[in-house]
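Rotation project, supervised by the postdoc (A.L.). Task for the rotation student: set up a whole-complex structure prediction and record inputs and outputs verbatim in this book. Inputs entered:
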Amino acid sequence: MRKACLLAVHELAKGDPRVVFVGSDITKQNLEKFAAEFPDRYFMEGIYEQHIIGMCAGLAMSGKIPYINTIATFLTRRCYEQVLIDLCLHELPVRLLGSGGGTVYAPLGPTHLANEDLAIMRAIPNMTIVAPCDADEIKRVMMQSLDWHGPLYVRIAKGGDKVVSSDARGFKIGEAIPMREGKDVLLVSTGITTQVALEAADLLAKDGLTATVLHMHTLKPFDSPRVLHYAAQARAVLTIEEHTLIGGLGSAVAETLMDAGQGGVPFARLGFPDVFTEELGSQAEIMGKYGLTSANLTAKAKQLLSK
Amino acid sequence: MEQRALIDSRGKDHRRLILQMLVGSGRGHVGAALSVMEIVRVLYDDILRVDPANPQWPDRDRFIFSKGHGCLALYVMLAEKGFFPKEELLRSCHFGSRLGGHPESRKTPGVEASTGALGHGLSIGVGCALAARIDKKDWRTFVLIGDGESNEGSVWEAALSAGKHRLTNLTVLVDYNKFQSYGPSKDIQDLEPFADKWRSFGFAVREVDGHDVPALREALRATPFDATKPSVLICHTVKGKGFKTTEHNADWHHKAKVKPEELAALLAELEATP
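Outputs recorded:
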């Protein structure tokens, strides 16, 4: 997914002289062509995220569209005040491309996990947050990013994730995509949990239950109308996210349902509890330990439907 | 470096205005405003290429007022140059005003960046200077930072980067008044050897009496100090400059509810000063 993302930045740079790339001491893989073709718009900077955000604010104030890539946790937490003031308060078109969103860096331990990035970015006015589900979808995100108003955070997943998105369903930042429609249960997902939700829908189908899978690739602005539309047709609503249960997708769906007076529907959220996920191992193992699996989502859905 | 320069009649006018703003708004960071007043005056009088009728002119010089709390001085000069009517000065900080307790670019014409949280402006300035270089434009970037602000690590991140990129179109002005909110900087976080720090980060350095208008003008006209490096002008200043009561007085770092007798005493002192 990161490869598709970075190659897309190069494509954008070919067509628009405002595009600038800024990295923070990251691998040169997939960046060589950009560096060779546009050396004056290519910046490989040091390990100082606060400075990089401010620098990109200055570039954007002067007419550039900077794309920054580094590890998601350092791009969100380390420089939070710069993101809030320099980018969001000024509504500048800076693109934050966060590698390793969620538990991608599970084997490297808790310092490298970004399990709260969506929540802390959601709290800032003017921020847009996108968590694509696969490498094809991130290309669509990137193509629309050029003219998107204001700052944009893109949560990049591990890569090699099963491609489930398609051009046929269209893509627009801010508009949720129904990946499948059913009448029994609504599964709301974001990022790579959309693959998990689709698998769960298959499992439910074996028991004669049909599910809508609503892919919320954009966490902010939140497509509340679509959530409410599909929730109104379902007997139960479940959310699944590779993120803390505080302030992410599940919170946004719950807020939406309650605010609209649709809080009566049976409802469950899957995500990380309020702990540091200290186990090492793979992303899949961590997600398995905390129940972010199609089997668990299916079981939880059946529980809700049987009540 | 000693600060021997006397405040001239225009400097006194500026100080009267700052006091009026303090009364009008009910509060303000007086010490910092009095410290940077001459620096900001020389920039707008003699150095910056700006157009008050067209604050967003693409080829203007950029002035990032990073120590945002000193903004009363900035507002005085912006009003004097015609970026907005002078009457607005007396209603700063009030509901509906365009002038806040810290400067905001989306509210106030002539303000380039919203500052107030310290340690942000130099990085923004580096980005502006890089953009001018990419576009092969000759507009320049000036950033005013404080010495207390220089406690922030992000200032030195930006300094590293400016040195690396050899940004000759970037000039940093440091308001070196050696006093911060709590008291003398040397007791809180000494910055010495300060000029050497900047040199070692790749800057060409000069020092000046920050209240000496001709000396400031001469130094700023000489930028860039080196054809291959960014410049820093360390301006030796006095926090609260202009009044015995306010100079080096932590009580006047941020002042709210100035009493009428305090105001009268300050104005009288200004009249009595040669």
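Student's summary: The mean pLDDT of chain A is 97.
Supervisor addendum: Chain A touches chain B through 30 residues (CB under 8 Å).
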